[in-house]
Amino acid sequence: MTEIIDTLREPWTFEFMQRALIVAVIIGVVSAVVGSFMILKGMAFIGDALPHASFGGVAVAFVIGANLQLGAAVAAILVAFAIGFIGKRGVVRYDTAIGIMFIAGFALGILIISREEGYVVDLFSFVFGNVLSVSWTDVWITAGLGAFVLTIVALFYKELLFTAYDPSMAAASGIPVNAAQYGLLFLIAITVVIALQVMGIVLVLAMLVAPAATAQLLTRRLPAMMGLGAVFGIASAVIGLYAAWYADVSASASIVLTATAMFVLAFLFSPSTGLLRQTQWAQETPVEVPDS
Amino acid sequence: MSSEATQVPAVDVSHLSAGYNGQAALDDVTFTVEKGCLAGLVGPNGSGKSTLIKVIMGLMKPWSGAVKVSGASVKAGAASIGYAPQSELVDWSFPVTVEDVVLMGRYGKIGLVRRPGREDRDIALRSLERVNLAQFRRRRVGELSGGQQRRVLIARALAQEADLILLDEPLAGLDAAAQHDLLRLLEDLRKEDRTLFVATHDLSCVASDFDHAVLLNKRVVAFGRPKDVFTADLLAEAFQRHLLVLPGGDRTLVGP
Question: Which of A133, A148, A232, B254 keeps 20 to 30 A from A248, CA to CA?
Fold first, then answer.
C-alpha cells in the first residue's frame, strides 16, 4: 500500500513537477471552458491558427529582445481580431481568412529565425512545448491570465451564450453581439498564449478541443459541458505527467494523448451518442422487409 | 377597445427601400398591419421577405423610408418586437435545454452582466405553458420534434413580452397535423391582442386563415384582406406566373 502511495507521490516531491502540474491543470480548465464555445461555433481551426501565427510574434520579440510570451500574446490577439474583421466583411469565408492569416504569421517567424545564427533553443521550445521548464513566474502569469479568462466568461456568460447560439436574435435583443464575438476571439487568443509555452504550437489545439469535445458527448447543457471538460482537462494533465515521469516521454505529448484517449472512450461508450450503443440499437431493431 | 387605439397600426412601413451592396431588395415598400391581427407576408423566393423582417427588427438600416411599430420608430435592441427565426437558421445541436432557449427571450431586458432572476424564470415558464411545452423544459432542444421546436421559438418570442411578434417561415417543413396545431396556436395568440406577422410560402393557409396579407415582390403588390389580395391578377404580378385561386367553403386553395 505504501508502495503505491510512494509511487503516486514521487513525481510531486520535485518542485519542477509541482510547477508543471499547477500550470497543466490551469491550462486544462481554461482550455475546456473557452474550447467549449470554440467547438460549438465550429471555430476549432482558429485554435490551430492562433498558436502558429503567434510564432511570428515570438520571433519578432526574440530579435528585438522583448519578452517572448508578450510577443506571442500581441501576435495572437492581432491575428484573432484580423480574422474576426476579415470574416465579418463577408467577402471571403472565415476559414479562408484564417488560412491566410495563420500561415503568414508562421512564415514570418520562420523567415526571421532563418536570419539568426545557429540553433535557437528558446524559440524551438515554443514549437514543441516544455512543461518541465516552467518557472514560478510562469506559474503566476498563467494563474493570473487563467483567472482573468474565467472571470470574463462568468461575468458575460449570458451574452456569450446568446451570441454563440443565435447572433441575429441576440443583436435584436440589444446584446452587444460584436463585442461578444470579438471578446470570444480575445479569450481564445489569451488561452492560446497561456497554453503555448507549455504545450507547444502544434499541441495547443488538442487541449482546446479534446476535453470539451469529450464532455459534449456526455452532457446536455453548456455549463455541464464546460465543467466536465475541465475535469477531463485536469485528469489529462495529471495522468499525462505521471506517464511522462515514469515512461520518460514528452509531457505535453502524453497529456494530449491522454485527452485523446478519453475522447475515443466517450465516442465509443457514451450512453446517449456512443458508437457501440448505436450499433447495438441497430442490431436490436431489425428492419422489417415487406413480403414481395 | 377604444377607437383611438385601433387607429395606430402595429406595423407602419412607408416608402421603405433597402438592399445589399447597392442591389435593392426592397423598393418603395409601403403598407400597414393593424393591431391584434394575424397577418401573412407572402411573395416568391428573393422577394425581400427576410430583408423586410430584418429592417422591421432594426437589424438592418434602410436606405430610405421609415418603419414604425405601434407608432414609434424602432431602435435595434429595444427588444420591443418578438421574433421567431427560420428553423434552419437555428443551431439545434447546441447543448441548451428548452428552458434555456426560452429564457434567452428575457436576456435583452436583464442588462449586461446580471443573471436572469426568479421573475424571468416565471415568465419563461408561463411562455412554455402557453405553447404546451412546460413538461419538456429540461429536455435538450435538439431532442424535440420539428413542430415542438417551432413552438419553443414562439415561446421565446412570448417571453420577450412583445405585442408584435414576427415569425419567419414557422410552417415550413412541418407535417399537416403539426401545421394545423401551430396555426391554432397562432390564432389563439392573436385573440390575446397580440399582432402576429408571419412570413410564409403557404399561400392557401394565409388565404383561408389569416386576417391580413401583404403580397411582396421587392415592392408591395397588394396588401389588405386576403380575399382582396389573393386574386389571380395580383398573384400573377407578384409571382410572375399564373396561380390558381380556388375558393371552396371556408377554405381557399392557392397553387400552381
Answer: A232
What's the CATH architecture for A18-283? Orthogonal Bundle (1.10)
A34-48, A149-163, A275-289: range with lowest mean pLDDT = A275-289
Tell me the one-letter amino acid at B125: L
d(CA B10, CA B211): 14
Buried/exposed B234-256: b ≥16 CB within 10 Å, e otherwise: bbeebbeeebebeeeeeebebee
Nearest CA in chain A to B111: A175
A216–B76 C-beta distance less than 8 A = no
- Pairwise CB contact (< 8 Å): B79 & A175: no
Cell (9 digits) for B132? 404546451
pLDDT value, residue A277: 64
Q: Please enumerate in sequence order all residues whose Cβ is within 8 A of that of A138, keeping only pairs 6 or more positions apart, or say none.
A: A19, A23, A197
Q: Are B58 and B76 in contact, with CB atoms under 8 Å apart? A: yes
Write out the residue range of the structural domain in which residue B241 sits: 3-80+162-255
CA distance A48 to A51: 6
Give the span between the Cα atoms of B194 and B190, in whole angstroms: 5
C-beta neighbour count of A4 within 10 angstroms = 8
SS3 B251: strand
pLDDT (tens digit per residue) in B227-248:
888 888 888 888 887 777 777 7
- What are A's interface residues with B at a Cβ cutoff of 8 A? 40, 155-156, 158-159, 161-162, 164-166, 168-176, 216, 219-222, 224-225
Phi, psi of A25 (to 5 degrees): -65, -45
Residue B90 belongs to a domain: no
What confidence score (pLDDT) does residue A280 get?
56
Say yes or no: B39 and B149 in one domain. no
Residue B88 in any domain: the answer is no
